[in-house]
Amino acid sequence: MELVGGIRLVKTLPCLADPGKIIVIGETDATLDGVLPLLNAILPNVVSYHSFSGVMTLRRRPGLITLYPDKVMITQVADVEEGLALLAAMRDLLNRTWTRRDEIQPRHEGRLVPRPLDVYELLPRTNCRACGEATCMAFAFGLLESRHRPEQCPSLADPAYAAQRQALADMLEQAGDIPGERNLNAL
Ligand code: SF4
Predict the structure, then answer these.
(1) Which of 50, 123, 174, 186 has its CA 20 to 30 A from that of 163?
(2) What confidence tens digit (pLDDT) does each residue in 76-113 have?
(3) Secondary structure E strands in the chain
């Protein structure tokens, strides 16, 4: 039996991480509490999982998917049409996983790796565009997705940013421990 009958698109917002793109927010018609520990056990692209609040973030290329008990939020979406397709793919992934619940050993331990905001706070935050991105937040997403390296931000080479540079290196090393990455469509 299916867990989720549908994920209804309820809102779109401008995506600060990628100007011109949108964030889509969908509501599920069933609670996701039971399926998140299963996803946590099998998906290679879990960025963070907080079991106490039932919130999981998945990395996709590009952007992130955050699952709440009754909601799905996807960043860096091209348009509503792509958003609807991604929400449908998410519903299918949830249902496929739920169907296999008897054979998957749920993983309840949380995972916590840097969020884009954590990375952003270590950047100069001047939006000077020297790295090729329109904003420092977009660069932060690029660092977490391994599209960028810290050296591409010339301002970080300034000795005044030595501490931030070191913290950034530590943070990205931690993020690099996540095995493999796959697009949602490939799941
Ligand atoms: S070069 Fe550095 S300071 Fe300038 S926008 Fe990129 S990340 Fe921000």
Answers:
(1) 50
(2) 899 999 999 999 999 999 999 999 999 999 998 876 66
(3) 7-14, 22-28, 46-50, 55-59, 64-68, 71-77, 111-112
* Selection from 58, 71, 5 nearest residue 186 by Cα: 58
CA–CA separation, 24 vs 127, rounded Å?
25
What single letter denotes the amino acid at residue 95? N
Pocket test for ligand 1, best of 155, 164, 165 (most atoms within 8 A of CB): 155
Paired residues of 7 in beta bridges: 28
CATH number at residue 86: 3.30.310
CA of 20 to the centre of ligand 1 (A): 19
Same domain, 55 and 124: no
Mean pLDDT of the chain: 85
Give a yes or no: residue 40 inside a domain.
yes
Q: Within a domain: residue 185?
A: no
Helix axes 162-175, 136-144, angle to 10 degrees: 40
44 and 76 in a single domain? The answer is yes
- One domain, residues 90 and 30: yes
- Domain of residue 78 covers 7-112
Q: Is this structure's pTM higher than 0.70?
A: no
Q: Whose CA is nearest to atom 4 of ligand 1?
A: 128
pLDDT tens, residue by residue, 40-79: 999 987 877 878 788 888 878 787 888 999 999 998 899 9
